[in-house]
Amino acid sequence: MSKNTARKIIVANWKMNPSTFEEANSLVLNAQIISEKNKKTDIVLCLPFVWLTDFSHKNFGKLFFGAQDLFWEESGAFTGEISPLMLQNSGVRYAIIGHSERRALGETDEMIGKKIKRAIDFGITPILCVGEKVRDSSHTYFDEVKNQLVLGLAKLSRSTVTKTIIAYEPVWSISTTPDRKDATPEDFLEMNIFIKKVLADRFKEVGKSVKIIYGGSVNEKNVASFFGVDGSSGVLVGAASLNSEKFSKIVEICNESKA
Ligand code: PGA
User: How many angstroms is it from 19 CA to the middle of ligand 1?
Assistant: First the structure.
């Protein structure tokens, strides 16, 4: 197994939680404590916009802040949208883009492609979520993921693609998917190799250096196995990141990992 020497990343996706600033503050303070003890990984907390800028302006060392979406225009008549310029001016360093829950609300690969490009234009690292809805024996899920990658990264060049992170999140393994199933580290390994191949076909050698992380019901019991997959650059944690005890354990396990 080859060692991945670049710094790994733990992304927390809070989704539309929590409901109060007090709760958000307590989760951030906990993450700050664990990030100070943790030397090996960067932690990125992706908060709802309404709480985000309370923290993103301040320096928390290796604890960073991200949005859960952004719009591709800089300013103007786009009611309800948040621009990459606003995020840049607020110290936001990352943005999840193309999450399956946003795709389910109508976001298309073309919209995602524009968002990815504009995030990079404004110095924000996009975390592009890809992942198939179901797995069938005919393996069409490879085409589904390839399509999401090709369209999502369509506006990037060899020099900009390395500024993205790919989060492989099989929708069938996400904690809130009805009748969900557990994905295995082998599922992630196989898709990780496939994603690297798609990126290398499109962007040549540099495509292989794009970070790929895993998301989908990551918790303190399974995180070591996903974090340790060959070629894994880390994990994206949803539900478990809203529980300080569980999230601390997850970070601790990643930090102790030899991977
Ligand atoms: P989960 O969420 O860890 O609760 O499955 C992950 C995600 O949807 O980003």
Answer: 18
